[in-house]
Amino acid sequence: MKTDELREAYLDFFASKGCVRRASDVLVPRDDPTVLFTPAGMNQFKREFMGLGDPSFRKAATCQKCIRTGDIENVGKTPRHMTFFEMLGNFSFGDYFKRDAIHWAWEFLTKTLSIPRERLTFTVYLDDDEAYDIWHKEVGVPAERIKRMGEDDNFWPAGAPTHGPNGVCGPCSEIFYHGDGIEEVEIWNLVFTQFNRVGPGQLEPLPQKNIDTGMGLERAAAALQGVPSNFEIDIFRPMVAAAADVLGIDYAKVKDTLDGVRIRRAADHARALTFCIHENVQPGPEKQGYVIRRLLRRAVLDAYQMGQREPFLHKLPPVIAEAMQAGYPELKDSVPRIQNVIREEEERFLRNLENGIGRLGETFRKTRAGGSDVIAGADAFDLHSTYGIPVEVTESLATDQNLRVDMEGFKKAQEEFSKISRGTAEAADVFALSPLDTLKEAYHHGSEFLGYEGTEAEGKVIGILEQNALAQSARETPGGPPIALILDRSPFYAESGGQVGDVGTIRGEGFEFTVEDTKKDRDFILHIGRVAKGEVDLNATATATVDASRRQAIRRAHSATHLLHRALHEHLGKHAQQAGSKVEPDRLRFDFANPEAVGAERLEKIENTVNQLVMTGSAVNWKHMPIAEAKALGAMALFGEKYPDVVRVVQMGDFSKELCGGTHLDNVGQVGLFKILGEESVAAGTRRITALTGQAALDFVNEEEDVLAQAAAALRVPQAQVGARIAALLEEIKTLKKQATQRKAEPTEKVSVDELVAGARPVNSATVVVRAVPGANPDEMRVLIDGLRRKVKDGLAVLLLSEAEGKVSLVAGLSKDLVDKGLHAGNWLKKVAPVVGGGGGGRPDLAQAGGKDPAKIPDAIEAALQAIEASLGA
């Protein structure tokens, strides 16, 4: 059975059992701070497990995209470890329980998949007689194929009864497959969450018993296809082959070697990168960005150790999109963007890597020079964090030099960075409750949003959140911390999809509340602000009024982002997908995929296109529809966002159609004026346009006209000639500066090469010249150094200083034989320049620096002499 067939067979089977087929959650959950990436199928149903989720279904089945980073070092080494993988799961939220879960698992495996019974074995928790009896007495599995295991193996969380944490937990039953030439592999885990742990060994039955199962798609596919490794299944073989091909290596010849591990790891990491970047997760210095940067760098370093010196990883996404197209057809549209991001990051890392390998050699030399054979942990971590060289590579290369790494010191240096690379959360955090969860039990559907129809509505106060606790009332407290007022119905738009939250007022009998911001949490609209007058009580009737003029300015900016998106596709191409936005009153920020700067000419065309669309005055319409229908109509979606089953489609004329929950204009003509302020890079392969609309755009244009008028008046030319006049003035200034340099007076104290040689200081057979050269510029000092090199062939170290216009210039040079011995002119200057309040550097044989404290020149001369004497061993 092909992997794609297995995925569909699983979902179809459980749909036939009444489970609602749900789409995979995004890889980075937007509303779950307990995880960096989605690590399991159950994560998107945490609220359903707590009885607080969507009441329209009580059992579900999914194929979830997952990323786990806890075993990165084993990827490619073992048959099963993968960074990105797919997890098949079926779930029950107080509906079916243990008996159905076990019977359905048996039916799916033995009937739907036709796996011979004798190839399956099972484990149950030591004390779970119920699960054992179902497998043995009802299903008919022989006792010798059922093994009872302890809490560390067959309980979730592992070891919970004895070691905790407190909270929801339960026994599990694991299913194993073994076949000809295939070692036993766990393919499915059935978790029966039926207890609440309140203390060591104290398990209380839950009123709602749940089912949470997980079957690794790749593992199960490997078993069904009779291959010993996940990397050999039908969808993964092309990725491994492509990785080997771009590296120019015959995979069959290196499969069982270290290079085979590296090739498999490159294919795995490339797949993880492809899915992450598709969802707009960019390589970066922290959190998810740090993780995927680490994956990319590890793959590039692996290739580097195989002799690859050019970027290669960016060539794999097309193959990955093709292999994964049955489950994820949307990937193909993002391939150009993904390749651009990966290629830029590869190029950047390869530049750093060349420096890192050099730094590694310096670290080895420094260690030996200090009389030690132990590389400091801090040095090893600096190589890891700054240059991307993993510590195991440092260890390996150090061993070749009869050195070792202080791993305790490395771990200590790494401690502060450890959290950002952790891909899963502590089990105790998974089902953490907030005060709003309590409110959710009473108001299951949250707050009703009425803002599409208007800016004022009646509602009832159903919650008062004060200092993260629910309160019965709140009163006027000048200068006090903000609180959140929650209504059952509200016209206030809560910050979402890049659009900022509304502001305004909420009034009721005896109180007035000023809304300073609006957020959303657990389907509740949180009106954040302060009681401006009186006291507000729970269940009070209130009138919520949005600041209408501000809302209108936000609507102008938001509708303009859709027009801008359309214009970008027209002038840049379909690859210019939206990667994020920020919509404020008459101001917008729009991020999009593009490998290079847009350029002034194309920016002007884009701006003109948006304004031409505005002038059509086309109507803006919206309606709700099933997401499948919306996609069939061609509505654009933002990758990396989790959309509900029913979505809102906003259409502008016949030129724009997008999934969007924000507030929009009645017609595009109400945008008024669209003005681009600038364009810049925000990440590899991602650009950002900042623009204004409406009144803000008009104000900006008026200000620009005023400045232009003032400049024209000062230059005494018509406004149309300002640019040409400024260009002419700049050219005139350039000419005058050149003439001034040519007329520069001779130094008041002429210094010759012979004079410098005569004043040289011998240091350990070297000739050292360190002195001030009054009035000389850097070019003249370099000429003197060249003359000294012709006069003194070997062993020459020279550093000259000069003052001009209150600033200090320094130039240093070394003869080739001293450079070959490890001396470095740039490093010499780095020790001297700070004395005169400056800095600089350069090549090993010639370097230049500047300073701003001429009074310290004598001190700098002394520092230069001390530094070179130390370098020469004096």
UniProtKB/TrEMBL annotation:
Alanyl-transfer RNA synthetases family profile domain location: 1-703
Cofactor(s) listed in the protein's UniProt record: Zn(2+)
GO biological process annotation, one example: alanyl-tRNA aminoacylation
Record GO cellular component, one term: cytosol
GO molecular function: alanine-tRNA ligase activity; aminoacyl-tRNA deacylase activity; ATP binding; tRNA binding; zinc ion binding
SUPFAM superfamilies, per database record: Class II aaRS and biotin synthetases, Putative anticodon-binding domain of alanyl-tRNA synthetase (AlaRS), ThrRS/AlaRS common domain, Translation proteins
Keyword RNA-binding: yes
Chief place of localization: cytoplasm
Enzyme Commission no: 6.1.1.7
Major enzyme class: ligase
Family, per entry: Belongs to the class-II aminoacyl-tRNA synthetase family.
Function recorded in the entry: Catalyzes the attachment of alanine to tRNA(Ala) in a two-step reaction: alanine is first activated by ATP to form Ala-AMP and then transferred to the acceptor end of tRNA(Ala). Also edits incorrectly charged Ser-tRNA(Ala) and Gly-tRNA(Ala) via its editing domain.
Free-text note regarding domains: Consists of three domains; the N-terminal catalytic domain, the editing domain and the C-terminal C-Ala domain. The editing domain removes incorrectly charged amino acids, while the C-Ala domain, along with tRNA(Ala), serves as a bridge to cooperatively bring together the editing and aminoacylation centers thus stimulating deacylation of misacylated tRNAs.
Protein name: Alanine--tRNA ligase
